[in-house]
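Encode chain A's predicted structure.
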Amino acid sequence: MTPLPPRRPTVRWELLERHLEEAEFLWTQWEHGLWSPERPLSSLAEGDEGRLRAHLDALVLGGSAVASRLLLPALASEEPSRVAAAAWALLSAEDADWHEPVLHHLEQGPEATRPGLLRALELLDRPDLHALLLKKLPTLPPALQAGVLRAARVQHLDTSAALDKLDWESDPVLHAEALRALLFVPGMQAREARLSRALSHAHPTVSTAALETGLLLGSREAWERARGSAARDALLALAVAGESKDLADLVARLKRGSPAAEVIWAVGFSGRRLAAEALLPLLREEAQGPLAAASFAAITGLPMAPPFLVEAPADEDDEDSEEEEAEDLQAWLPAPRGLPGEVDAQAVETWWTQRRDGFTEGARYLRGTPLTVEVLARALETEPMLRRPSLAWEVALRSGGALLVESRQWTQVQRAQARPLRNQRPEWLTRAGARLLGRQGDTST
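Encoded structure for chain A:
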């Protein structure tokens, strides 16, 4: 009797389509979770990210049939999260190489699909693919050059060969990304010349990027410019690693009336009792109270719960908030944001009166605990996601960019990048201002 040929397994397309739909939804959820004012890293890792990676893995395991029928058509979607999920799965395939159609779509497809494609590249550990893109870089339009440089920078790649062939001045966004890429380019002399010119550039996108990179590389000129800047990274640098006069200036700005939200946010990372007490009067301001309470709590450990803060539900229909959040998803440091609600200033003041003497003037605190390297490392695990990029900024600043935690990477990548922090000496957290300069790359134990 002739044996029957083996049956081909039935492909359950409705299930695979569901995997793609769920990956699209969870990708969006995960992106917003990276800036959550409430969730810590573990919550995101075990929740949205874990589920997202499971659906992506299912699409990869589906092989070429799934790639051809579902993933390639998804590259033309108008939804960035669907494009990103499809591109990530295609470029992670184990049974075929799909990089040519993906890169063709990146170069020739609709502009609306580029953000999703580039986001997938930021998250892909594919040095071969990034090298190929960097080789192509001079032939791409400036906007796409900027996106490819950003993806390579998020992967901490040396882009020096490509940078030499680009016309930096052709586009402000390209110029800014090229300046940020200098962090991973060897040869300080060439970097300093570029940065020095860009610090006084007329376009704020360019000058802000130069300031950010200059601070990380220990540029004296960048540090001096930070003292007169209202940029987010400059204010945070002054708050966490400035001289005493720098913190005094920030506190003075708090007391002038209607201080900028960026200043209120920055002083919360200073950890100083002086800053905490300067925040107290702002708790009575309706517009600034919740943000001031968040910064005060970050220093002192005030519980952000009743009776001190009565949370109000976020308005899901607030278009301005949605636009701001979308903009933040492209940023290195997210915008200041406090939990919505009403602050009971009197209750906070009474709480502080009972605890004030436990805080030493001049010492730094995080949630009421004296700040140490161990406490800072633990905070990267336990603090709300919204605050982590600013904590990571201090780590990057103190290490001259050598310890750079990419707060928009997969959580396991972030954890690996943060691991060397625990090896720093205690005095690593005490250097300020000029004493930080000239210490690029010092990660000694």
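Residues 13-33 form the longest helix (21 residues).
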